[in-house]
Design goal:
The protein is α/β, with parallel strands linked by helices. It has ten helices and seven strands.
Length: 227
Amino acid sequence: CQVIVHDVNELTEKLFPIVEAMQKHFSAGSGTYYSDSIFFLSVAMHRIMPKEITRIIQVDLDLKYKTNIRDLFDEFDNFPEGAVIGTAREMQPVYRHTFWQYRRENPQTKVGEPPPDGLPGFNSGVLLLNLEAMRQSKLYNQLLEPTMVQKLTEKYHFKGHLGDQDFFTMVGMEHPELFHVLDCTWNRQLCTWWRDHGYSDVFDQYFQCEGEVRIYHGNCNTPIPED
């Protein structure tokens, strides 16, 4: 087993020029902070990792594994043609909220609607990055260009604060074919913040998850169930 440690400052130095343009749209702070670039690592991982690394699983720290993560690696084999990233849906109506203006102007849209038919956005707590596919996808790399980021944020009136997750969500509204949607049991989010902040009537449509949980995600400091 080989462990390679990467220097955060070195990574940030490589990342910053690639993701600087999107930071002002998807960062919590106002303006573009150099240090914020690390929250966009997954977006450009294919540009900064050595070519011989072809697949990476990127995970948050607030996770609890109920199964062997090797089984998650097998999900790479289920990517449809053209997909470059595997990710589970967001399990709160956060993007119903964020896309409110677009939704008001497009009352028939699936944007921000709950599963199974809607597009609730993605949660980046568990990400399967097919670096080889990301490198080869002309479409994906075009979407990283500042002009494309600007065009999409204007179309969707999008202003977020969740870093890579916001970028993937916005891109997924426009190009769902770039994503392999993981089952909710691979990223069973536990945060219920939006239930108490104006969305109690629709909350459970987003939050429900059938099946045996394989990874718990204690997002927004939510306690993870004991065994």
